[in-house]
Amino acid sequence: MDLQTLTYLVVGASFALYIGIAIATRASSTGEFYVAGGGVHPVANGLATAADWMSAASFISMAGLIAFLGYDGSVYLMGWTGGYVLLALLLAPYLRKFGKFTVPEFIGDRYESQTARVVAVLCLIIISFTYVAGQMRGVGIVFSRFLEVPIGVGLLIGMAIVFVYAVLGGMKGITYTQVAQYCVLIFAYTVPAVFISFQVTGQPLPQLAMASTVEGTDGVPLLVRLDQVVTDLGFAAYTVGTKSRVDVFFITMALMIGTAGLPHVIVRFFTVPRVRDARMSAGWALLFIALLYTTAPAVGALARLNLTETIQHGAVFEEAANLRYEDRPDWFRTWEDTGLLEFTDKNGDGRIQYYDDTNAAFATEAARHGWAGNELRVDRDIIVLANPEIAGLPNWVIALVAAGGIAAALSTAAGLLLVISAAVSHDLLKGVFRPGISEGGELNAGRAATAVAILFAGYLGYNPPGFVAQVVALAFGLAAASLFPATLLGIFSLRVNKQGAIAGMLTGLVFTITYIVWFKGIFIEPMAPDTAEHWLFGISPEGIGSVGALLNFAVALGVSAMTPPPSDDVRGLVERIRVPN
Question: What is the DSSP string of 4-33?
Fold first, then answer.
C-alpha cells in the first residue's frame, strides 16, 4: 500500500477514535464542561496531562532543536521536565483544595478583586493564543506533508476535529480523548526511534544509543562520530555548548516556572476527586512524559547524523562526496514541496553544499574549493517527521508518525482552547458581567467561545509567527512572568494583596511582551537584532520571562507592603488551603 493511502487510513482511524470518545463523553453540565465533573482517576488524568503537555513543540520541534543546537538544546529538556516538579510540589494540591474551575477564579477570590480576575484572564488569553499558534502550525506542517493537501485545507480538517470534541465534550471529552492521544503519540514517537537506534548503533533502546557505537565504524561512539561529522562541515561541535551560563540558567528557569504557571496544565488538577489525587496525577504525568523526553536526545542526535551523512557522504571537499541534486532521494523531493526544505545552487555545480557559512575560517577554505555559501535550508520542525523517511523505514511507521504529530498538536490545542473558553464564559461573563446567568446559558456561552477561539487559532496556524518550539518557549516566558508569581504568592503569602498582585502581573506581562516584541517581533517586525550583544545582561527572549517573574515578585511584594493587608476572610482562606486534609 502506498504511503499516502496508508497515512489517510491511520490518521482517519485516529480521528474516528477521537470523535467517538467525544460523543460518548458529551458534557451535560458546566462542571463536566470545565473540569470533567471532578471525577477523573489520577492515572487517566496523568495520561491526559501528559498529552496536554507534550504538544507539537515536544513531538515535532524539540528533537529538531536538540538536533541543531546539540548541547544547548538540553535547556528545553531540563526546563520542561523540572517544571513538573514545581507544579506537583507548589501548586497542584493547593489549587485542587481551593476547588474552583479556573486560575483567574482563584486569583479573583484570593485577592478579593474582580480587577485582578480580569487581569489574570488577559494574561491567560495572551499566553494561550501564543501557545496555540505553535500547535496549529504543527497541524499545518503534518497535513501539508503527509496528507498532501494545502495547509489551509489541513487546518480546516484539524479545526473541525477539535471543534467536535472540545465544543461537544468540553473538559470531559477532551480528557478521555487526550488519554487516547497520548497512546497514539508515544507509540508514534518511540517506534521509529527504536528502529533507527537499532539501525545506526545496533542498540534497540534509544536511551542507550547515546552511549553506543555506530555500526560499521570500528567502535566509534555515536556522539564522537556526530561531533566529527558536523565539525568537518564548519558547524559547532554537537557536545559543546555555545550559550552563556547566564542565558542557560534564565531559559531553564523560565521554562520551569512557566510550566508551573501554564493555565491549561494547572486546570487539569481540578478534574480529580481529591487533593491527594492531584499530587498523584502530577507524578503519573511526569512518568508518562519521561518516556518521550528520555527518547528525544537520541532522536535528535540520530536525525542530525542521518541527515548530514545523506547530504555529505565522504571527505568534505571531494566533489563526489557532495550529493548531486538530481540524485536526491524521494524524501528530499516531498519535503521540498512543503517549502520547509530548500536548495539553492549558488555555484551552479548541481551538487548540494551543506555547511556553516557563518564560520569565517571554514567559509574561507570552502571558497577556495569553489563553494559559494550554504545551499541547503532545513526547517527544524521537519526533523522528527522526516527522520523515518531519511532512515528508509517502512511506510506504516511513517504513517504512524503523522498520526502522532497530529495527536500531539491537537491534544494541546484542545486544552488551550478550553482554557480560553472558560476564561471568557466563566471568568468574564459569569464572574464579572452577568453573575446571574443560568448554567445552560453559561454552557452555551462556553461552547460559543470555544468555536470563536478555534477560528482564531486556525488563522494563527495559517499565518504562523515562527517555528513551533520558538513560539511555545515564548509562551512559557509569558506564563512565568505573569500568572506563576501571582498564584504562588496567593498560596504561600498572607500579606500580598490585590494592589500588589495586579501591579505585579501587569509589570511582568508588559516587560516580557515588550522585550519579546523588541527582539522577536512575533506578529510584527522586530525592532532590534536578536543577537547576544543586544540582549539585556546577555539574556535571550526565551529566557527573559525569568526576569519578568522576578520583577513581578518584587513589585507585588513592594506594593503590598505599602498598602493595606488582605481581609481576615482571605487570610483564613489561604491558611485553609495550605493545611492538608
Answer: HHHHHHHHHHHHHHHHHHHHHT---SHHHH
